[in-house]
Amino acid sequence: MAILISEVLDNFLxxxxxxxKYKAKSFWASSAGTCFRKRYFQRTNQEKSDPFPKTxxxxxxxxxxxxxxxxxxxxxxxxxxxxxxxxxDKNISGYVDLLARFNGETTLYEVKSVSDxxxxxxxxxxxxxxxxxxxxxxxxxxxxxxKPDSMRIVYVGTSTLKIKEIIVPMTKKSLKxxxxxxxKCIGYYKDKKLPPKTEDTNxxxxxxxxxxxxxxxxxxxx
Length: 222
Ligand code: SF4
Fold this sequence. Notes:
Elements: H1 5-20, E1 27-28, H2 36-43, H3 54-77, E2 80-88, E3 92-102, E4 105-114, H4 118-124, H5 131-143, E5 150-157, E6 163-167, H6 172-190, H7 202-205, H8 210-214
Parallel strand pairs: 1-3, 4-5
Antiparallel strand pairs: 2-3, 3-4, 5-6
The protein binds iron/sulfur cluster.
C-alpha cells in the first residue's frame, strides 16, 4: 500500500519540532514587544497548553525555505555577510537572519514569510510593518556590539514571491521604548511576579499558553 505523503510530512515536522525544543535560559529576542505574561511563561519553561497545530508547523517549515532563498540571494551580492548570527546578553538571546555589507554600510535583514493576503494588512499598519517585527529588529540592534547602519524587514509572499522591504525606524525614542519594555519584562521574571494579561486580546488567539493562562484567575505569583 502506498504511503500517505501528508503523514510522512507531519511526522517529520513533529520530530523536527521536538528537536528544536530546548530549555530557555533567557528570553527570546523574537518575542520582543509581545504580552509580558506570555514571555514569562516562555522564560520559565511553562508547558504549552495549546501546542502548535500541524498546519502551523507546516507554515514554519515553508518559512525556513523562504529564509534560505532570501539569504542566498543577498549573500551573493554582499561584500560581507553573516547568517543567523547569535546575539545575546545575560537576559535575552536570538539569531539575526542576516547581516550584509554593501558599499561600506552594514544592513541587518529580518526575513518574514507571509501569505500574499497579508500584504494588504501591512499597508494599514503603522510603519507598514508588524509592530512585533519592528520590536524584534530593535532588540537585535540593542544587543549587537557592532551596530548596523540600517535595518530592514523583508516580507516575502509565499505564493507569488512578492517582496516588501520596510526600513526600521532607529530613533532614540524607539530604542528607548524597546529597552524600557525589556527592563519591565525582565523585572517580572526577577521578582517572580506573574505579569498581567495583555490588553491586546488578538495575541491571545494564537497563544500557546491560552488555556493555562485563563486557568490562573486571581493568581499573581507562580
Ligand atoms: S493568553 Fe493572552 S494574556 Fe495569556 S499569556 Fe497568552 S497572550 Fe498573554
